[in-house]
Amino acid sequence: MDIKQLNELILEFDEQIANNEFDKVLDTCRSMVKQNPKEADLYFYMARCEHALKDIKSAIEHFTTTIKLNSNYQKAYNHRGLLYCKEGKLKEALDDMNRAISLNKNDFTAWNNRGLIKSEMQDYNGAIEDYTEAINLYPKWCVAYNNRGYVAYKIKNYSLAIKDFTASIELNNKDSYVFYYRGLVKTALKDYLGALADYNESLNIDPKQSTTYNNIGKIKADMKDFDGAIEAYTDAINIDPNWSVAYNNRGKVRYMQGDKDGALKDYDKAISLNNKDISAYSNRAYLKYLLGQYKEVVSDCDKVIRLYPNNSMVFCIRGLAYQAMGQYRSALLDLKQALKFAPDDKRLKDAILLLESAITDQKNVADGVSVIDSIASLFKF
User: Fold this and answer.
1) Which end of the chain has a smaller Cβ tally under 10 Å, C or N?
2) What is the C-alpha separation between 93 and 73, in angstroms, rounded?
3) pLDDT tens-digit profile of 153-175?
4) CA 318, CA 299: separation in Å to the nearest integer?
């Protein structure tokens, strides 16, 4: 195949890939590679289509063949590096991306992709440097701003994150997730009104976002707008009725409103959807303590402790239940265990002193109520 024929074929492949005609490109490449087994471009385009069709193993094999046939095939290193990253082979991914950049320092996609790999390797400063280079090479590319903004948010460089997401929005104000992530940053900065505005804009673009409604619910709960919080969590549940987190969060707000029955139903539903939801078990356990269902409190706390034995709060709740049942020594053991995971908690230290005093003073153990009330009042869950 001569150069002219190859160039025409590549133009045709590019057009077909742009139209998602991956099978057509694959069929042509497979047919032609039989007569042209050393033509690197054919393997490269096969690999691109296999990647698009999620046949990652074959894609990596064909990108590797491309490189064996042409060790300077820059795009093959770039693409294979991304696939290695997805497969968790980060060293191989980084090696490929370093090679891609060395072959073409003006390829902004390679700088961006190396930033992705460095981010996966938790080299966040290195990732920001690479994203910055991508932006310098192509300042109108939203992807690099979004990626740098996300890493900046992750390392709590909120000013850079806001700057990047705002720049991305100025280039393209139709991407719901950019508004969503800027809302996350504003939430971290406690700019709740700004965050709500971004979340609402995100929902205007794509109204089927359960996580966005969930985040709105959290903000409204923090702002003591409990009715608004419940409405937002309910919207999240309507979109994703199998999401335990939203039920648990709505239950917490219902509890804060004094609707214990409604809260209990939500906690029950959360646990039925996810029997490893530690937060829902803990919340239900404390609510059942308030309702006087002490044996059920112990049962819920036992489940949490089996799942997560370093949870100080759950030992406190179970300790309260043991107190209420008059099992002071068991309560004392639980509070001391809780203190191991929260050694600076003054409430725990005071509660332990009260219990130790009650156990020593048989009269207080006999009537018990004053001790229970005193210890329970120390904790605000």
Assistant:
1) N
2) 15
3) 999 999 999 999 999 999 999 99
4) 9
